[in-house]
Amino acid sequence: MKISEIQQEVIEEFAGLGEWMERYNYLIDLGKNLPMIDQAYRNDEYLIRGCQSRVWLNAELREGLVHYTADSDAIITKGIAALMVRVFTDHSPDEILNADMSFIDEIGLKEHLSPTRSNGMVSMINQMRYYAMAYKSKLEAK
Active-site residue 47, yes or no? Predict the structure, then answer.
């Protein structure tokens, strides 16, 4: 499934939810279902800078596709991480780097987060793209 198709699914899921308390609960549920990051990556080296909460992110290249795992010590942030992992994981570096992230505005996520959480989400997306960029360079060097 393409990134744009996953994003469209997310838009439809959020459209089916009511007010923002229901949407926050949905994010919390997404976080509960986030696959656990290996304990080896829950250290300062994998922390995302710019997040108010502690967020760990790891990426691995598997058969030309980037696979992400993440975790957070805050429930809403963990849900945001789960959402971003869902959108980006198991796609090529080029797909990740070229992804249009307007779905975030379409679901109203950015406007309903505190400024610090919103900045943290941007930092998370940037870090995911940095991993993709590094793997793209690695693939091109082969």
Answer: no
